[in-house]
């Protein structure tokens, strides 16, 4: 038992232990989030020791929700099991729930791992059948793991067992060559003599399994109450297809009697690392109790469910199996009477106080203690080295990570370590980027600042998706009418469907469904009830003439504006220097090709004398903000100030956290102005901004107020410009002839997009998603409190939050009460568009600060978050 270990300290100890006693260390964590954190620490400290780190994630799915686990989690599990069977040495990081999960036998799993060598005879149809049953998807061209395609005698397949996709060339049924190829260029890069195709899921279901379930299910679920659910599932299996959630019903005809330990070869020396034994046992017991309760409720309601013991092992049995492996236990101080005490302590947070850090390092050096600084990226490591150099303190920089860093008394390196620590016995101080500059993002339940970037996707709603009877629409020829629904016109109940519109004096107009292009949902500024036009009247013609005049005036103004911008001379920003390079290298992720092109476009614009006016389009999470932050750094690096304009206080709040985290370690001062600041605070911020003491000022349209002035404004960044009002856009138009403007949008309005496509505004598009971005799993299911309970429970277990979007303000409180009954442990808030703006924004900010678990809202509130 190891006592006193916490966070990255435990990984440090066990990597040292692995060097002395190699083998397989199976590390059990509470959940997938903790497993990823532990794996990151192990990869850093185990570098150079030969200890490979493998993650076997838990499925994180409720077996009684009727939904399948996320396919990417299933893929990772399958790869981990295959590598275990190959004799993996190092660390296997998994979860407590994976210990309980029943698995197919290793022999059955091996049968579905296809090994191919040049010269093998394999019929093409047999290969296709194998790939389909193993969970591979057929595509025109292979680009992602788990895909395959064929043309002539060539089969392309991307197996998890290989880093690159494979190109198999056949002559008849004989395999002639195996090549790895680049999925981006589709060009071959290397020749192989053999390859392995690993299934994309641990439980491979073939046609015989499906047919057997189709026969056996009616016998097992023979009572009348199961008939509707059974018929729904058998519609799929009658055609040899799998239904959603089959993983938790097919065990009816499968013998899953193996556990994780069965995948560890008998001759391999293995060890178990287990945290908080008593707490873990209680969690597993609670898990099984909840499963039993859910099973009994759903079984009584006529749902197709299998008892928990068909899906999971009993916790007591598996905990006994753990004890047989003589586990190393990780427990907090004072929790065990007999323990080996390793005196590890947390390092303090300096929050950018470099002088205090240097003073402490000086004391450590006098005491002959080692100091290792671990930054998130090589660029940030180089930046810290330069900062220390400014204080005449030599700091060694190594790119080799921990194996090289441990040789030096004072060193900085790159790596992802979850926390810093101090060991008096080892005379070692390890500090992370978090220790030096900033607090880590908050966890659920702590009233701390919002996460830097909430990845909440806003759905695009077409004009007619939520059109209701009584809503107003505009016909291009006849003007404003009232929508009365759809009418089928024809004889004997047949005929064509028409949209029925009512105009003045009760006149009706029927528009064929295939001419919906003539209609548009009415939206007017400040007009809740517009007057109806008269069919055949002159009012609509007068309105159209007035609109044409306004459009011509607007077009003239825009032409003058952009003509003036073409001949205007702005500031030509300097080319990139060493500081800019450090900032770019401090980016923790790999830029996508589209993102890199957008960055180069922006830099080229800024280095030109012509004022920049560029629109960057890209989906949420595709990297638009990083493009903007590099532009902001370029401006600040030239001695200019930057204004960041956001449409909502919530979005401004998110941006200030994102910018502060990204600019930490660099001499850039970021602040925010909003009406949530007190008047004295606002006055102080504005005065500092006027004096040039703030480099980047973030805010809403408050930034466009008359009392806001900059000492040397060089760049304006506008997020979601289409959501600003007319008055704000007029001010922005005037600013475009004076300073560089960079706009960002996921859904630009047609006019903005058209201007960009015409060349009036410059456009950069980011279409490529970031590498390893977990795809969103979207499932349409009937409304069920059971599904709501399951979804919320799963999200809270992973310390996440939930949006519950409702379509009616009138009934939103009753829906919130229903959610409270479904998830009594959750902290619930309600927000909608008819609430006072200040109250609504306070609720949303509290939600972003993790003071609420579930936000029951309308789409209006959801659109306020990015």
Question: Can you describe what's shown?
Answer:
Helices cover 35% and strands 20% of the residues. By secondary structure, it is α/β, with parallel strands linked by helices. The strands form seven sheets. The chain has a seven-stranded parallel beta sheet with strand order 3-4-2-13-14-1-15. The chain has a seven-stranded parallel beta sheet with strand order 29-30-28-31-32-27-33, sandwiched between helices. It has a six-stranded mixed beta sheet with strand order 6-7-8-9-10-11, with no helix packed on it. Helix 1 (8-20) crosses helix 2. The radius of gyration is 31 Å and the shape is globular. The model is unreliable at 1-6, 332-340, 439-463 and 862-866 (pLDDT under 50).
Mean pLDDT: 82
Could you name the ranges where pLDDT drops below 50 across 5 or more consecutive residues? 1-6, 332-340, 439-463, 862-866
Annotation field: number of helices: 26
Biggest sheet strand line-up: 3-4-2-13-14-1-15
For the sheet with most strands, the description reads:
7 strands, parallel
Shape field: globular
Class by helix and strand content?
alpha/beta
Give the termini separation.
46 Å
| Number of separate strands | 36
Helix percent band: 25-40%
Radius of gyration: 31 Å
**SS strand fraction:** 15-25%
